[in-house]
Every structure is written in C-alpha cells, then in structure tokens.
Amino acid sequence: MTTEIEWWEYDDAAELADAVAGDIQFVIESAIDARGSAVIALAGGKTPLPAYAKLAQAKLDWKRVTIIPSDERIVPLGDALSNVTALGKTFIPKGARVMPIVPKATDDYKTAGRSADALMQDLHWPLDLCVLGVGGDGHTASIFTGPDYDEALNGPRERRALGVMPDPLPPEAPVARVTLSRAGIITARALLIAVTGDAKRKVIEDAISEGAGSPYPIGRVLADVELPVDIHWAP
Ligand SMILES: O=C1O[C@H](COP(=O)(O)O)[C@@H](O)[C@H](O)[C@H]1O
C-alpha cells in the first residue's frame, strides 16, 4: 500500500458534516457486510459533532458498532470536556457500544494510559476507521508536544494507547490526556480527518510538506503512512 492523501473541500460546515457522516456510514456498512461488526475511533473536540449528529440518523445495525474516542481528556465521565461523553450522548441511544477509554478521572495519567492500552486488547484490530481532528497547534488525537511525545510517535507497535501530558497545555482543555498512539492510528484500515478554517488548513498543508521533520504532531503522524487518508475541509 502507498500513502494517498486526498483533500475534499466543501462550501460550509453543514456540507462537510453531510460528507463526513456519509463516509463513516459507508465504512460501517462495509465492515458489517464483511465481518459482521465495525470498530471505529472517532475524534473528540467540537468540529466533528455535527457530522456525528447526522451519522446518528443513519439506518445502521448499530448494535454491531463499537466506537472508541481517538483520545480522551482525563476528566470525570459526564464532564463537558469528556470526549466519550459527547459520543455516548449521540450514539448510545442508537444502540452502539461506546467504550470509555478513561473510565474515571485520575491524577496518574501514565497508569490511565496503560489501562486504556489494556482495554484496546479487547477490541477487534485493526480499526475499520480512525477519524481525527487537528488542533490549531497541530496536535491530533491527543498527540501533543511534551514529555510523552516520543513515546506517542515512536513507541512499540503493539502499544495502541498511552497517557500524555501536553506541554504547553492547550487552553481550551488544559488537562492530561489518553490518546491512541501513532501506531494505533496508522494501523487503521483508513484515516479520515475533518477540519474547518483556513488556519488549520495551513497547519496541515505545512505539516504534510514538512513530513517527518514537521514541528506539528499531525505532520509526524502522517509522515510515511501507508493507508488511505482523506482530509475533509470547510472554511
Ligand atoms: O483536544 C482535542 O482537540 C482536537 C481538535 O478539536 P476541535 O474542537 O478543534 O475540533 C480533537 O480532535 C481531539 O479529539 C480533542 O481531544
């Protein structure tokens, strides 16, 4: 397989949401047809929420669908910052299995990461799809610069999740995280990135052209990947 990064552009966020929801639905249907079930990782944050709301309207055999967050902020379940809480509100009523990767808040983010990695062993791998967002600082999932950056990018292939302390802490959610590792992300069957705004577009374009030498986590994650990557963008 070779790297194939394709950009998809839309006029506005509503069009982006329709397209992203349609693509995720297609992956889920194909996986259920092929293997009887689908396992996907979905980005947290705010950008993809309209796409998830559209996806939840799709007629799917939801009880065959397992969803994990691509990353989690280490906060109690139910907290406004909790990625899995947002996913659960949307997809649990449909019958999907939405799996928290950080079942309870803790001060020990490294242990939380090891527990999440252990939970991953219970899932069918590879993921059928990994949906990622990108922050204005170039982070993706919760792969941030900081003391755990190298482990997130270059840790053992079998370590699919780990604990991360971003440095600097992102102002919109200044907490420790658990994230899929680069290895966990790039072993998915497909990668879908959903972003809005000119600033994030520029970050991603720069990151892709810089490749493995990029100062941006998204550049380091995408460098030399061997899976299809679709980047969906709207202003
Ligand atoms: O902190 C996070 O940020 C990114 C981007 O979020 P957005 O709100 O700017 O779309 C997100 O993809 C990630 O899952 C989340 O934990």
TrEMBL record:
Keyword Transcription belongs to the record: no
Domain of life: Bacteria
Pathway(s) per entry: Carbohydrate degradation; pentose phosphate pathway; D-ribulose 5-phosphate from D-glucose 6-phosphate (oxidative stage): step 2/3
Reactions listed under catalytic activity: 6-phospho-D-glucono-1,5-lactone + H2O = 6-phospho-D-gluconate + H(+)
Top-level EC class as recorded in UniProt: hydrolase
One matching Pfam family: Glucosamine_iso
Signal sequence range: none
Keywords from the UniProt entry: Hydrolase
Gene Ontology annotations of biological process type: carbohydrate metabolic process; pentose-phosphate shunt
UniProt-listed SUPFAM superfamilies: NagB/RpiA/CoA transferase-like
Single GO MF annotation: 6-phosphogluconolactonase activity
Known EC number: 3.1.1.31
Gene3D superfamilies associated with the record: 3.40.50.1360
Domain Glucosamine/galactosamine-6-phosphate isomerase: 12-222
Iron-sulfur recorded as keyword: no
Functional note: Hydrolysis of 6-phosphogluconolactone to 6-phosphogluconate.
Similarity remark: Belongs to the glucosamine/galactosamine-6-phosphate isomerase family. 6-phosphogluconolactonase subfamily.
Name of the protein in question: 6-phosphogluconolactonase
Organism of provenance: Sphingomonas palmae
Gene symbol of the encoding locus: pgl
